[in-house]
Specification:
Layout lengths: L1 H18 L1 H20 L4 H29 L6 H7 L4 H30 L7 H27 L4 H12 L1 H14 L7 H29 L1
Length: 222
């Protein structure tokens, strides 16, 4: 399973490295999102600072949708999906590899967006440990859920429009938990951010387990 996960994840990352879609399209798109919100709240600096965590994770969510759609659209042509199905790869390894590739892209984008909100929104990091832990848990949850529903929608002609409708309601707890945890980590809230981290960790664990156990069936049905 782990060998197959490395093969699939490495394949997806090599494709993205050579095509440069993440660096040339998704990354500029995420920065534009932050800039637009910055211009919208330019006169209300306090509101902008309070909204920074939510804006950050909304931008990450939009980038996650683009990364997942890109991951499965590459295999929609030339029978590539049938090739994967007939390759004998472990379905669990296939899931873990694709989810890991999406997560790596999201981590790179989060680093870029983190610098963006620090510079544009004048935020201060008060609890770096909580910030990093919640970001990791949220990233794993988004990548796992996105990969599961990306495979569900991959066999449909309307997959580009159906995927957001499937994913957004499911990952609402991740957006809520990550936003609240980051508000605590940035000193914008007095709530216990580690409790929200627990919610993120549970979500990531559940969807990773669902993907490992059910991905074989999803591959066959797609």
């Amino acid at each position: 399973m782990w060998r197959d996960a490395l093969l699939v994840g490495g394949k997806d990352l090599r494709v993205e490295t050579r095509s440069r879609v993440t660096t040339m399209q998704v990354a500029p798109y995420s920065i534009v999102v932050l800039l637009l919100f910055g211009f919208a709240f330019d006169q209300q600096h306090t509101i902008l600072t309070q909204a920074a965590p939510g804006l950050f994770w909304m931008a990450v969510m939009l980038c996650c949708l683009l990364a997942v759609q890109r991951s499965f659209s590459l295999e929609a042509a030339d029978g590539a999906r049938d090739g994967l199905r007939l390759s004998g790869l472990d379905p669990a390894g296939l899931f873990l590899g694709k989810a890991a590739a999406v997560a790596v892209q999201l981590v790179a984008l989060e680093l870029l967006l983190g610098v963006g909100i620090a510079v544009l929104f004048d935020t201060r990091f008060h609890d770096v440990g909580l910030l990093i832990a919640s970001a990791i848990a949220a990233t794993v949850g988004l990548a796992a859920a996105g990969t599961v529903y990306g495979m569900m929608a991959s066999g449909l002609r309307v997959r580009e429009t159906l995927l957001p409708l499937l994913v957004l309601p499911v990952v609402a707890p991740v957006l809520l938990g990550a936003t609240q945890a980051w508000m605590a980590a940035l000193g914008l809230s007095h709530t216990d951010g580690w409790q929200w981290f627990g919610l993120l960790a549970c979500f990531a664990t559940i969807y990773t387990a669902v993907g490992v156990l059910a991905f074989g069936t999803l591959v066959e049905e797609s």
